[in-house]
Design brief:
heterodimer; A: 258 residues; mainly beta; 2 domains; five-stranded mixed β-sheet; B: 350 residues; mainly alpha; Cytochrome Bc1 Complex, Chain D, domain 2; two-stranded antiparallel sheet; 2 strands
């Protein structure tokens, strides 16, 4: 009896003590080896095995903020470009793996030009994303997010009035159509749900824990103004205009995966 | 006397306990008991980024308010923060430029302190990120409070038995320095929130707008007036820097260039909030416009083109083409942003 009581007390103590011990492992949900059962970080997390790098180009030439595009109808000095990518997905015949819900590219924030994500190891055949926001995301508003979130207030990408919408693409700069170096402000904001474009880029992508794969996306700005009547203005309105549709089509066509 | 078996049990338990990493936080003995205050986020406002090292407390906010209204921070104990930031004026200065303790004229119109908790930068040129950092500058600036040094200010506060107690209560310190002062002031500034204007009540279905105000709202939020790009709801500021065409090339104030040293930033200033704009005259960084009518006339004229004019100033050299009725309606709408609860809030008074 004495012995069994002691054994019982020992078992109780051990049970309590061990249950209070924490399970080590990777506790970060965005890491590729996230362990949902772990509640003690042991620095084992593996991150960012896929980089999406965005490069601005003017035809084949590298292009930077404040550079000028020259074309037949005029010259455009690019001061800012922003665009949303949503539902970034890696695909093969058996799965489509979402690796990022939303990303905001901002030319004035160089760190947004390189997107590092974590994806399950494996072989993929394409990467796809939406240019703009999926309807689910576009039906939210900045107050739903922390201020610095890609959809947060500090991004200044939300048009709250009339047919409220995030601005999917901003093209801002100064245009000279007179060929006399008289540059005037020109801004195109593309912000309607029906301007969302689903893009798919076939590419053989192999991911493993030892290597970080990089996908180089080039955005050829020389295509921005194809078939665009530069004398037309684009305003925020309740419906999308033919001009807005032409611009979003041009922007879609400008994105290429190396 | 313990039996051998019980000794064994205790020994094993000790071993197991020692091998298991302890996650019990070490609590240091403290002799102060601040009352932490939850930040009250207004409806439709996002949660602001608040500094983890300066959580608001009742004691910190009360101390910040006392310091804000106390000329003790100035070199000759004659000027306080509140002397350039009047609550009745939306915590702005009705003087075109503020005047320092020696009568020295400043170069900028004092910015309104409204919803500063959401500021991503401070000052017209955005030279500070945090409100704590912002509060450091004016105390020793020769055109503002012009105290000889922060050390001297801190000594004066430590020589004051009331302040000594208040800092102890707020920050558990007997040694006061600039960091405690600016933390307290920042805590107070973060509660200076305006979110109960007529327009807010309109959005809450608690007030209706007149036909003129509704027309003004439409002008404000479309390219007709094109105000919304830089002054969008709910803060009515983009927190970004713009050259809105006030001056032609060669005559522009450096503005943001002074911070970034980037020539592309010349003439750019932070867009101010338009909340309570009816009360925050004069307008622009240098207070050049005395009335809202003058401001609207500037945009209606279109402003001056330059190499750094903002791409959003799409009607530069052309003008908006607003009629007199449009201007009247726009001003009617702007006045719906006045928040009488805010300017009469006793929590903001000394």
């Amino acid at each position: 009896m004495y012995l069994s009581k002691s054994i019982f007390s020992l078992l109780v103590v051990f049970t309590i003590v061990f249950s209070s011990c924490k399970q080590p492992g990777c506790t970060d949900p965005i890491a590729s080896n996230y362990n949902a059962d772990a509640d003690k970080e042991d620095d084992s997390c593996i991150y960012d095995n896929l980089n999406l790098q965005f490069n601005l180009k003017n035809n084949e030439r590298a292009f930077s903020r404040y550079d000028t595009l020259n074309f037949n109808e005029g010259s455009f000095r690019v001061e800012n470009i922003t665009f949303y990518m949503s539902n970034i997905t890696l695909n093969n015949t058996s799965i489509s793996k979402n690796v990022k819900d939303v990303h905001l590219f901002r030319l004035d924030e160089p760190n947004t030009m390189n997107l590092e994500v974590t994806a399950p190891n494996g072989n993929y055949e394409s990467v796809s994303f939406g240019l703009g926001l999926t309807p689910e995301l576009n039906n939210t508003e900045p107050s739903d997010y922390p201020t610095d979130h890609p959809l947060g207030l500090n991004q200044n990408t939300y048009w709250p009035m009339l047919a409220s919408s995030y601005i999917f693409v901003k093209i801002e700069g100064k245009m000279d159509t007179s060929q006399t170096s008289s540059f005037y402000p020109l801004t195109y904001h593309l912000s309607h749900e029906d301007l969302f474009r689903a893009l798919d880029f076939p590419k053989s992508i192999s991911l493993d824990e030892n290597n970080t794969a990089t996908l180089q996306f080039n955005i050829d700005l020389s295509k921005l103004f194809t078939d665009v009547d530069l004398s037309q203005e684009l305003a925020h309105e309740r419906t999308s205009s033919p001009l807005a549709n032409q611009l979003i089509t041009n922007f879609s066509n400008a994105i290429e995966l190396e | 006397m313990l039996s051998n078996w019980n000794k064994l049990v205790m020994l094993l338990c000790s071993f197991v306990l020692l091998s298991c990493e302890r996650d019990i936080p070490v609590v240091e003995a403290i002799d102060y008991n601040p009352t932490f205050v939850a930040f009250d986020v207004p409806n439709r406002f996002p949660t602001p980024n608040l500094p983890a090292d300066n959580p608001p407390t009742e004691e910190g906010i009360a101390l910040g308010k006392k310091l804000f209204y106390d000329p003790i921070l100035s070199g000759n104990n004659t000027l306080s923060c509140a002397d350039c930031h009047f609550q009745s004026k939306g915590f702005s200065d009705p003087a075109r430029v503020s005047i320092g303790i020696e009568g020295v004229l400043g170069t900028k119109n004092a910015s309104a302190i409204i919803n500063a908790a959401w500021n991503t930068t401070n000052f017209w040129d955005g030279r500070t990120i945090s409100l704590e950092e912002q509060a450091l500058g004016p105390v020793t600036s020769f055109i503002e409070l012009h105290s000889p040094s922060w050390e001297q200010v801190a000594q004066e506060l430590m020589d004051n038995s009331e302040y000594k107690g208040l800092f102890k209560q707020a920050f558990n310190t007997d040694i006061i320095d600039s960091s405690h002062v600016v933390k307290a002031i920042a805590q107070f500034e973060r509660i200076i929130i305006s979110s109960e204007s007529k327009f807010d009540k309109f959005l809450d279905y608690e007030a209706s707008l007149t036909p003129s105000e509704l027309r003004g709202k439409e002008i404000f939020n479309t390219e007709k007036g094109d105000c919304f790009h830089c002054h969008s709801y709910p803060l009515f500021t983009s927190n970004l820097f713009h050259n809105n065409g006030l001056d032609p090339e060669g005559s522009m104030d450096n503005g943001r260039f002074n911070v970034t040293n980037d020539p592309n930033d010349k003439g750019k200033f932070k867009s101010p909030t338009l909340r309570n704009v009816e009360l925050t005259a004069p307008y622009m960084h240098d207070g050049r416009f005395a009335t809202l009518e003058e401001v609207i006339e500037h945009y209606n004229f279109g402003g001056h083109n330059s190499s750094t004019i903002d791409p959003l100033m799409k009607k530069v050299d052309i003008g908006l083409g607003l009629t007199q009725q449009d201007k009247t309606d726009l001003i009617s709408f702007l006045k719906t942003l006045t928040d009488s609860t805010f300017i009469n809030n006793p929590e903001f008074r000394p």
